[in-house]
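Annex B.
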Amino acid sequence: MVPIHVVGIGLEGAAGLTAAARQAVNRATLLVGSDRHLAYFPDHAAPKVPLADFHAMLRQIHAYIGAASQAETDADPDTDLSIAVLTSGDPLFFGLGRLLLSEFPADWLTFHPHLSAIQLAFSRVKVPWQDARLVSAHGRSPDTLIQALQQGAAKIAALTDGHNTPPAIARLVCNLDLPGQYHLWVCENLGGADERVQCFAPAELATQQDIPFAPLNVVILLRDAEADAPDLATLPMFGIPDAAFLSFGDRPGLMTKRDVRVLALAELALQPGQVVWDIGAGTGSVAIEAARLCPASTVYALEKTAAGFSLIQQNAERFQVKNLKPTQGKAPAALSLLPAPDRVFIGGSGGQLGEILDDCAEVLKPGGRMVLAIATLDHLAIAQTWLQANRSAWQQHALQVNLARTVPVAALTRFAPLNPVTLITLQRSDRAPILS
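Precorrin-6y C5,15-methyltransferase (Decarboxylating) subunit CbiE: predicted structure tokens.
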């Protein structure tokens, strides 16, 4: 067996190696690495294999090991053969280590990690990173990054490449209707003499043309603690951007998204002077839009959690809606405290959808409507069972909402799907049939 030492190395070169890593390199009888890494050891006597083509490099390593095994009986017993593979940072963090482990037995390999670029980046921006989302867009689709952004991760570290550059990532942030605002730190040549760390707003970085970024860079995305208060004069009357709402710190994406919210409000067919219930209101996004659309109506936003109730209060103040009544309580028990509704939106049910529908059906005013937003098959099955049992009393239709938004992918554009939602609209059958 010829041992293979996988040595992580930084931009400071050989000077940054530990004693064990330096010894592994010095004793190597075959040295493998990129041209940049091999240049750190110009006087090394061992043959050098450039790491330009991974498969070609593997063939040369296998050939070396095969030749060594064949000549083992004839070799000088005092000659120790070993291979040193030079790679950036931590070989087992989005690095060459995974590929080498898939090719060679683990007991052949010894890893000597250096500080990873992401460790260095967080140290430069002075932010703890044990709870960060770590993604690689290096030679990969940005889907994992998109998911982290849509979930509102507070800290994201992204490895980049020539296509998924810092400006490309900034354009992605600008084009997604995110539940929070981000600032982006571009960290270049970390550990090198020409290291540079800069902070940008997404819109500023997205159009950055006059500052070329070094190929060796990491982007750190940090979510702002709180979004700036929206300018009410410029807000649309209908379809407020998700980012304008304050949201849950641990689940920023937990709200009825704008595209679904617009359809749900249209299905409610709101009229002035009505009583509207928003059950399982979460951040209050549906209730606030309804209150803004119909200032002569009274909207009750029912939320069981203290955190959600507080968010609804803050958002009501943020959007200066006076006809919204945040109410803390769990449906269906808390529904008895509210005046009879003309319209009911059910966005969350706490596992009691059937009971909530029963109670709403009893108190809904003549001509009233209910709209359910359902995201899981389980709740859809409960709703269908309830409708089957009450079919004669209701006109109903359903919309299966499958939406996708365009997102930039490097120099291209593609569609990124949103989670599907089913909207079920109910109206008492003693009224004219609802539109399908």
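The chain has three domains: 4-115, 118-223, 242-428. Confidence is low (pLDDT under 50) at residues 432-436. Further annotation is deferred to the next reporting cycle.
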